[in-house]
Amino acid sequence: MTGSQIKESAAYLQQKLSFAPEIGLVLGSGLGPLANEVENAVRIPYGDIPYFRTSTAPDHAGQFVCGILSGKRVLCMQGRLHGYEGYAPDEIAYPVYVMKQLGVRALVLTNASGGINTGFAVGDFMLITDHINMTGKSPLTGPNDDALGTRFPDMTFAYAPALCTAAREAASVCGVQLHEGVYCGVNGPQFETPAEIRAFRALGADAVGMSTVFEVIAAAHCGLQTAAVAMITNMAAGVLMQPLSGAEVNEIAARRGADFRRLITALVERI
User: Fold this and answer.
1) How far apart are CA 107 and CA 76, in angstroms?
2) What confidence score (pLDDT) does residue 263 get?
3) Which end of the chain has fewer CB atoms at under 10 Å, N or C?
4) What pLDDT does 32 receive?
5) How many C-beta neighbours within 10 Å does residue 164 have?
6) Where would I find the H helices in 136-245?
7) Which among 269, 28, 36 has a CA at the least distance from the CA of 167?
8) What angle do helix axes 3-16 and 89-101 make, rounded to 10 degrees?
9) What single string gives the DSSP state of each residue in 60-101?
10) pLDDT digit string (tens) for 136-149?
11) pTM of the predicted model over 0.90
């Protein structure tokens, strides 16, 4: 990943877009239908963009959808990249730098997560206020491009307090319960073992998933304010002592999709 590659990717997108986006959205597993609510949408497959990788995860459309949502100019990633697909951390984070280059000033991330906190239930929403990176990796490994960000970015306010406040206000207006907690990022693609979940709970994690942390690190690196909301689509291994499946994730995401879309739309309106 180099600054020149990022500029080339952004230049390609600028040719396709009629205006500069101001808010970036990343839609996780089962959450892609929100992109269908973008007005005057322009769709650009990732595979058409120089240096981009394509999504291979189920139900990830693998395209940018750019248009208007809640009166704001948004650039929406309908599907993301994951480490378990074989992509390196910097490849997963690459779209964040491109969005920053395009003029995006705030990033909203979403994901489907397993609930670790026993006070959560399937279908709940959680505002991510911090994370634990259990992947053992970082998108910043290797030479640092000072034009993109500092060598040692601070992660204290990686989840921007102002955007977290906006998310709380959005939940209140929508009448949607919004838990808050710590997200644990892992590699996957296998679900975690009950022992791993007990360990993550002891570390202070409230939810677990296979995405998000590399994008947040990249956003902190390049100075992009970030908020993240997780949908609890299953309880993590050992919480209910029942088998887990990817089908359950998509089923719950579909069932709670309308409320989720209302919440994220209201959040975008307040940014």
Assistant:
1) 10
2) 95
3) N
4) 75
5) 19
6) 161-174, 194-203, 213-222
7) 269
8) 60
9) ---EEEEEEETTEEEEEEES---GGGT--HHHHHHHHHHHHH
10) 999 999 999 999 99
11) yes
